[in-house]
């Protein structure tokens, strides 16, 4: 059975609460808003909020993307020159509508309310962490045995800090990354990948037909993009119509995939491991035992290695192997393309530990657990090991 059938049967089975970094003040340059949502992605909620309040999307700061099929609480910032008050939205007859109340967890929708002021905008990663409360269903005997065995490994050694599936929402087909087309200057291919992945489309290039076919399901900026193609804009200029935070997601998706592959290769080269199914037929490898844990716990893995070349020879070989496999070229590093700098370097911890892990409820068929992860770590990555390895 797939992972999400066990942990996301209902939105209230997966509760995420952001642990904020910024404390609300009585005065400040930015409103601090609390966003509570269920069964809607962070980006969709922000787009709806922007459309109804007329606050430009680029002016809305947020610390991270929260799961769609879940009940989540997170924080936003907008400059004080915009008026804000509590608002709620949900789909009514398939159209987003402002409403007085949303039954969070039971309905698709979200509410936003001001909670104070701060003096700077939120950016990605601007949070202490996330608290999770998760209900695991169909928790039969064989699964319980696996869960407790793997939980002991996590308590001793933590778990690999892979990027989770939320990072790959822009990847519609296996290994078909929009950024790879952009890096090669193929913006027509990038747009085709964005809308259809690797699926064959016999009317690609007939922009009027494309618009008629897709318009009911498109965001306004996506409609604007196709309208631009209809007016004769080049694919590159049409691509730039996408909001910058959307364009950056293409970079994050590809770099996150490569980083996951570096860590997977490293673990397989050094430790006893088990491979676990991931999305798009990809795999994640989890160590079962670690002989040099004091070293591994402090290890940081670079995103490209061109500025942060690791001393660890096994890690260097893993990075080289992956970059060679996917045809990564050095001239792509720090490249400015489509109004953004891509393939930048940085460091990410190889291992993460859940904090305050507790079993809240337990029956023969169900278990409820809670734990906190630091910013940038993914609960689904931990759960894949506990439930699937």
UniProtKB/TrEMBL annotation:
GO terms for biological process: tRNA pseudouridine synthesis. Signal peptide: none annotated. Pfam families: TruD. Residues 158-353 form the TRUD domain. GO terms for molecular function: RNA binding; tRNA pseudouridine(13) synthase activity. The active site is at 67 (nucleophile). It catalyses: uridine(13) in tRNA = pseudouridine(13) in tRNA. InterPro entries: PsdUridine_synth_cat_dom_sf (IPR020103), PsdUridine_synth_TruD (IPR001656), PsdUridine_synth_TruD_CS (IPR020119), PsdUridine_synth_TruD_insert (IPR011760), TruD_catalytic (IPR042214). Keywords: Isomerase, tRNA processing. Its EC number is 5.4.99.27. It comes from the Bacteria. Belongs to the pseudouridine synthase TruD family. Responsible for synthesis of pseudouridine from uracil-13 in transfer RNAs. This is tRNA pseudouridine synthase D.
